[in-house]
Each structure stands twice: as C-alpha cells, then as structure tokens.
Amino acid sequence: MKLAIAQLNPIIGDLTGNAQQILDAAKIAAARGVSLLLTPELSLCGYPPRDLLLNPSFVESMATTLAQLASELPPSLAVLVGTVTPNPHALVAGGKPLFNTIALLKSGKVQQIFYKRLLPTYDVFDENRYFESGHESNSFTIEDGGIGEVGAKESFSLSPHSPIKIGVTICEDLWNDEEFWGKRSYQVNPLADLAREGVDLLVNLSASPYSLGKQKLREAMLQHSAKRYQTPILYANQLGGNDDLIFDGSSVAFNSAGEIVCRARAFETDLVIVEFDEVRKDLVSGSIAPAPDGEEAQIWQALVLGVRDYGKKCGFKKVVLGLSGGIDSALVAAIATAALGADNVLGILMPSPYSSAHSIADALALAQNLGIETHTLRIGDLMAGYDRTLAPLFTGTEFGIAEENIQSRIRGNLLMAIANKFGYLLLSTGNKSEMAVGYCTLYGDMNGGLAVISDVPKTRVYSLCQWLNSGRLGNEGMGNISNRQIIPENILHKPPSAELKPGQVDQDSLPPYDILDDILYRVINQHQSASQIMAAGYDSTVVNQVLRLVARAEFKRKQAPPGLKVTDCAFGTGWRMPIACRRY
What residues act catalytically? Predict the structure, then answer.
C-alpha cells in the first residue's frame, strides 16, 4: 500500500488557498496510486493561527471549507487534514472552546476526527490559550467494511489484506517519551498508549518550527520511538515562513527497526510516497532526500525561505536595505538576492563625513557581485541641519551618543521614505549580538519590516559569509552568480564599525565578539548566572558589563521588527522578559 506526505506551505488564514494546496497534492497522490495522504498540523488554516482563533466566524469558515474540500477530493484517497473544531462541552463542563484537530476525509465526507492530546506552552507555543486537550487515543483501521468512530470501531476498505490499525498523533504528542528525554513533561505519553493498543503504524501531523540542529534531534527521537515500540512512524511537517517562525519540512519515515526509509526535502515543498508492506506491517521503501550539508547551509536556507515567504505572504515584491559596507548588511543583501532575485533588491548607500572611502567602495563591490541596484544619498547636509536646529539646546555640551544616533536616525528616515514611496519592504540588518546588548538605534538602524539576521550572532555572520565565499552554495537561488567570491574580501577582514565618529570600531564599546557571543549564549540560551559564567573563566567585569547591557536593552527589543528565528532561543515570540524590573 502506498502512503504519502504532502509537505505544504500554507498562508495563515488563507482557507481557500490552503485547501487548494491540499487538493492539488491529493490529485497527484491519487494518480500515483496512494491510498492515504498526510498533511501537516493545522494544514487548513496554517500554523500558528494565534488570535485568529478567537474569531468565531473564522472557525465556522474552516468547517465550511473542510466540508467543501472533502467533497472535491479524489474518491479513492483518504486524507488526514489539520484543522480546528469547537469543543461542544466547553460551556457546560468548562475548558477551552476549541480542539486542535485532525480530520479524516474520505468518500466526500469528514469521516472521523482526532484531537491533539499534548498542548505545548513553552518557547513560541501558547496552545493552552485556545485549545482543550484531547483525552482519548486516536486511531482508525483500514480493512473491508465501512468507516466509523474514533478508535476504529468500524473501518473502511483500502486493502484486501489483514486490517491495518493506524495511530494518529499531532506534533507535541510524540515529544514526551521519558526514555528518550530522561524525564516526562506531561502525565500521558500518547505513543505509549497507542503502542499498548497494538497499532501497526504511527502517523504524526506536525508544525514543528526550525531551529539549528532540530532535525537531527527530531530524527533521533523518532528513531528511538520506532525502535522502542517496534512500530513504524510516518512524520509530516509543515514548510514555510510564517512571521518570525520558519518551518523546514524535512518530513521523515522510520520503519519498525528505527531505520530511515524516507525523508522529504528540507526548506522546500514536497510530496513523498512511502510503501507500506501490509503483510509485514512495516514501511519498506521511499526516497531519502539529503539533509543540508552543515550548519551554515541550514541557516542560509532557513533565512532565504524566511525572507521569501515573509515578502510573498505580506504582499511585497521588492525590498530595500541600507548598504554600509559592513558584513551585516552584506549578508542580508545576499540573503535577499537569493530569496527574491537581484532585480527585486535595492541597496541604499548613505555615507556621512565619518564614513571611510573603503566602506563606500566595499558596498559598491558587493552590489556589483550580487547584481543589485544601488543609490547613494549623502547625509552630511542633513546632519548639519540637525546640528543647527538643536544648537540652542545642545550649546555647551560635548559631542556624544545623541549626535551619533542622529546619523542612524537620518538613515532610518531615508530608508523608510523610500519603502513608503515605492511600496518596498525595508529589511533591518542588525545581528543578534547587537540586539542583545543594545548596540543598535531605535528609529534608526532598527527601522524595518523584517529583521533578517536578528537571531544570528556576529561570529555566525562571519562564518556564513565565509561559507558563501567557499563556493559550496552553488548557483541555486542566486541568479547569475557563479561559484566565486560574493562577499568582498575587505568586508570579511576589516574591524567592524558603526562609523558614527572618527576612528570608531565596535570593540571600543564591546568585548571581542568571540567572547561576547559565548557569554550571550550562556545567558540567553542556557540561562546561566553571572557566577556560572565567571566559573567558566570569564572576567567578572566583562560578565557584569554584558549582563547589564542585555537587561538595559529590553525596551529596544520590544520595539524591533519581527526577526527570523533560527536558534532555540530568539528575541521574538518566545522571549517574554519584562522591561521594568530589577535584575537579581
């Protein structure tokens, strides 16, 4: 029997468009002889729908669209679709108003529904806000006969062989194996419950966001569960960028021995078919797409997908960004070019009297390598105008941060004017190290609709640019750029500088980036205390300085554009620190 995964890229809220994606995949699957098609979690509305779920008409429209989709599907095919259904007992017995649901569609109807049992409330997840937990195991059986209630009290015919009992789980339902994690985060383990029921196949419909190294963890967890329960697992994951979250797809299948038999492409839509041996009750064959080659390749593909989808789903065809001649804007320009094409990227040079000649030359060389258009807007006269206007207030004071930041805010104003005038998306170019310690200017370089590398530390920015220049990228997504140096060599080797005053370099104010980034990782990702960081060998003065800067910059991060998440702890949906507080 043939089973398939449709690795889809939904637009949140686009019920009609998402249903069409499912229908298109179903028609292809049916033509290839597939019996059962899996789609991702909440594939009908897109994940995460967030507070759209508070609108009753949205939930009602979902039910209407689901019924229409069921009527249009090929009659030979059964399809598992992610959707939302009302909790009929919410008003009487209490509880949340909705269930995170999988609907089994077959023969023109919604035949069965299954509820998600484990609802995550950590990091970027907030499912307890909307959903009630399901309390029963979810399964159905394929054999001769009809189709009936959840739990396979009846069944439908797809095969002349012995019955096949399929256990259905939704994303988090498979993330609570106490043997794998060494602990249990929830009181129940849906996989263990289904294994006790004797299911022949476990399927999981997921919307699991990307972070660096997560696919390796997913596959290790799935492999462990397949071996532990001696049951094959078919895992369907969402694809695409939705606001700050990026979903990598990488859907995968393991046989009962824990051997991988299929993997969908990473960071691309895909439709993969897996053979299920009905006699052996096991997954036996499928195509295995290679995983991205290394961490830089992963991050690059994630960021390109994130920019492409953010622009497309928000209705932008072109982007604009400031080109300073520095490494951050160089990387963002390269990502934008790969995502949208050189013709859709505009770089703006805005030199001040403090800008070095090599910065201008480096920015122009980068633009020539990428094939993008540039314009130069000199800001010296604008700076002089600010000086004259502020002179009555600033008389008798020394040049300082206020004057430095005016330069950044002039640039931010110009970029926003261009974005407004032509309907472009302004890309912010600040990195995670700067965002962490506040080495950025509100209403200046923080202006923008999307912060592309705000979850990429400075040291990783360098490694990504070096990787780009190594030739391992190839031509994919980069238009006519060949395997040659993309980032000018001088950008890679000159000391980073905001160039807001004569001779300025970042290390005037900050520790060296290799030290800063490691301390930040310990603080942000590992939640280490000052004493723990000092015990790792760092100077107390440096540690306390960094911690103080991180705390003081919280108000800036709250006003930053949404930033693409590529690590397990980003300054976005999952970062919920107070601004006004006393640090312990």
Answer: 41, 116, 171
